[in-house]
Design a protein that fits this description.
about 260 residues, mainly alpha, about 80% helix
């Protein structure tokens, strides 16, 4: 009898143990599945982090490259170079434009010969215009400095130059980036004839309303202005018919504008 009870007791315990082990095994498998899911999520986050980290590294490398170019190709160094570097970082933070882009713009500004507060003001104005949708900050900075050098920074500052670009886009049917990339070819001729930068912008905006794109408008306007500098017999006859000569017309453009 005692033997039977002992056998029953052992058998009963074994059944309970089997049940407990089965339950534990199921929980372990479920836990393992959860761990796999977490592992897959971690892998995805790691991949995303790797991409973001790679982009950040490239951006930092591009920034360093642009600052190095300012030093090597433009000759800016020391405190002036540090000022440019700090300005590029500050403007990037304020506008949301990458520091690689703002430092690229600063390279064009420094290449144009601008220094100190004037150079920083160009970067500020160009970045604000770019952030508002006018186009690439380096392209805007390049055009603004070209205009300032052509007309003299005492006659045209960075804010005025970028404001004229914004107005030309607003009044015309022009892509901002295309306008900023095209006007540079007109500036030397226009400034030599005394045609102001705002008149150039107005002329290109007006031409765009009839379907002329920015590149074609710049080419046509430049050809018109170049034609005024020529003194061929046919041109002189045409001017005389209007009671003018080429010299008088150039002087009138310089003093009165007239585009």
């Amino acid at each position: 009898m005692a033997e039977n009870k002992l056998r029953y007791f052992i058998t009963g315990n074994a059944a309970g143990l089997n049940q407990a082990l089965t339950s534990a095994s199921g929980k372990v498998r479920a836990f393992g599945s959860k761990i796999k899911g977490v592992g897959a999520s971690l892998q995805r986050f790691s991949a995303i982090g790797a991409v973001a980290g790679g982009a950040a590294i490239k951006m930092a490398m591009d920034f360093d490259k642009n600052i190095t170019q300012i030093n090597a190709l433009v000759g800016t160094s020391g405190e002036a170079l540090q000022e440019f570097s700090d300005a590029a970082k500050r403007v990037a933070k304020e506008t949301g434009i990458s520091s690689a882009k703002t430092s690229e713009a600063m390279f064009f500004i420094a290449s144009a010969g601008l220094e100190g507060a004037e150079a920083v003001s160009v970067l500020d104005a160009a970045a604000k215009a770019s952030a508002s949708g006018l186009g690439d900050v380096a392209t805007i900075a390049d055009l603004a400095t070209s205009a300032m050098n052509a007309y003299g920074s005492e006659n045209l500052d960075a804010t005025a130059a970028t404001d004229i670009l914004v107005a030309a886009v607003r009044e015309g049917k022009l892509e901002a980036s295309a306008l900023a990339g095209s006007m540079g070819s007109v500036i030397p001729t226009a400034s030599a004839l005394g045609v102001s930068f705002d008149e150039v912008g107005a002329a290109m905006a007006a031409m765009s309303r009839t379907g002329t794109d920015a590149a074609s408008g710049a080419t046509q306007l430049n050809a018109i202005l170049m034609g005024l500098t020529k003194t061929t017999p046919a041109a002189q006859d045409a001017f005389r018919a209007m009671g003018l000569n080429s010299k008088e017309l150039r002087e009138e453009l310089a003093t009165e504008g007239g585009l």
